[in-house]
Design goal:
Layout (H helix, E strand, L loop, with lengths): L1 H21 L14 E3 L5 E3 L6 E3 L5 E3 L7 E7 L7 H12 L2 H4 L4 E7 L7 H10 L7 E4 L3 H10 L5 E3 L7 E3 L2 E5 L5 E6 L3 H23 L7
Parallel strand pairs: 5-6, 6-7
Antiparallel strand pairs: 1-2, 3-4, 5-10, 8-9, 10-11
Helix pairs in contact: 1-6
Length: about 220
């Protein structure tokens, strides 16, 4: 009984915290920002942001940063023939995808960039998305020019992505998942193969949504 009670508390506390953040009085501790920052000419802090990009999704349609305006999303890098970390990482991404609360958030998306675009064609990614029962509109699997994907990984997400004959499957890539806010800032970085870290990601997505909801109520930086 004691173990059951402890488990109940572990599961309940994040939910209570989210309710308190999104209703009633607020004492939200905002999420931090990741990456280099600088001061603008006016003295404001300018945070690192994901640069513009455009690739092709599993439906054969162009998809990029323009499609993510005013959206919160999580992103990672993988390839469909990866023999090591990708299956576990994509399983945990699917866990985020399946959270009921997130299905009701119209401006929440998931992105998975392939680091092996030569083999991960549109058809391959479409079959992979179908295999794991991913919603084609909410979760985008992106392919395109390899060098552009690698540059975006390094310069945007500060992540590794490279062809490497010594790495399992022939590619070296990050095992991290990134939480990106509506202004394209990195607000969280998580180990994509760590269940505890991905649960933290789920909680922090809710915190980020609560930040925007509170700002809207206070008429600060109103969003749609």
């Amino acid at each position: 009984m004691r173990k059951i009670g402890l488990l109940f508390l572990i599961l309940l506390v994040p939910s209570i915290g989210y309710i308190l953040l999104t209703t009633g009085k607020h004492n939200i501790k905002p999420l931090g920002y990741f990456g280099p920052k600088k001061l603008s000419a006016s003295g404001d802090t300018v945070y690192h942001s994901i640069p513009p990009f455009q690739f092709t999704d599993q439906n054969g349609k162009a998809f990029g940063s323009a499609n993510l305006e005013n959206k919160i999303y999580v992103a990672n890098f993988f390839f469909t023939t990866c023999p090591t970390i990708c299956p576990e990482m994509q399983t945990l991404m699917k866990m985020v995808h399946d959270v009921d609360d997130f299905e009701r958030i119209n401006d929440f998306r998931l992105l998975s960039f392939t680091v092996d675009p030569e083999r991960d064609s549109v058809g391959t990614l479409r079959d992979f998305a179908k295999q794991i029962k991913a919603d084609n509109e909410r979760w985008k699997f992106l392919t395109g020019n390899r060098d552009s994907i690698y540059a975006l990984a390094y310069n945007g997400y500060m992540a590794n992505a490279a062809q490497d004959s010594l790495a399992p499957g022939g590619f070296l890539h990050s095992d991290l998942i990134f939480l990106i806010d509506r202004e394209k800032h990195i607000r969280g970085i998580y180990e994509g193969t760590n269940m505890k870290d991905v649960k933290r990601l789920i909680d922090e997505i809710k915190v980020l949504v609560a930040e925007y909801n509170l700002a809207l109520k206070k008429n600060i930086n109103p969003i749609r």
